[in-house]
Specification:
The protein is an alpha+beta fold and 160 residues long. It has four helices and nine strands. β5 and β6 form a beta hairpin. The radius of gyration is 14 Å and the shape is globular.
């Protein structure tokens, strides 16, 4: 296995390009639970270019009916990124004030993680994000209502 650096610029550029639109390569999950994590995964894939095809526990997208839960589910995405030791991207939990461009924020409503945001800028130290479901382009994290937020700093990816 070898390490792949995370191309933060590619992830952020993808996020900014598709924040208010949908890439037809991927299914739009807005009507069935939301598209936020699907969008976050697309951005991350733009920056690492490698998936983890382990059935049930990986992070991949082939089609709407053949994808990992971590590709489109907020809680599964968070868990995969923080625990992955195999092929694909991985990261560490950090406070929101230590995030970098291309990192992710998981929002918690007090009982579960329900929304995934992509960090695409900063204003006075506050992350600006791009996201789907409630489509957002360079929106300040301050404008969200949530119980807690967990930062996910992407370290890179592994590839066989």
């Amino acid at each position: 296995m070898h390490f792949i650096s995370y191309d933060r610029d590619s992830a952020v550029n993808y996020a900014k390009e598709w924040a208010k639109a949908r890439n037809s390569i991927y299914y739009n999950f807005d009507g069935i639970g939301g598209d936020c994590t699907n969008f976050a995964s697309q951005c991350l894939f733009a920056g690492v270019g490698v998936m983890n095809y382990e059935k049930d526990i990986g992070w991949y997208y082939i089609s709407p009916d053949d994808r990992a839960a971590a590709w489109s589910g907020a809680e599964y995405f968070r868990r995969f990124m923080l625990n992955n030791k195999n092929e694909g991207p991985f990261g560490v939990s950090v406070p929101v004030n230590r995030l970098e461009l291309g990192d992710f924020i998981s929002l918690n409503n007090g009982s579960n993680y329900y929304h995934t945001l992509v960090v695409t800028g900063f204003s006075n130290g506050v992350p600006l994000i791009c996201a789907h479901t409630d489509d957002s382009y360079m929106r300040s994290l301050d404008t969200y209502h949530y119980h807690s937020a967990q930062g996910i700093h992407i370290l890179g990816a592994n590839k066989y």
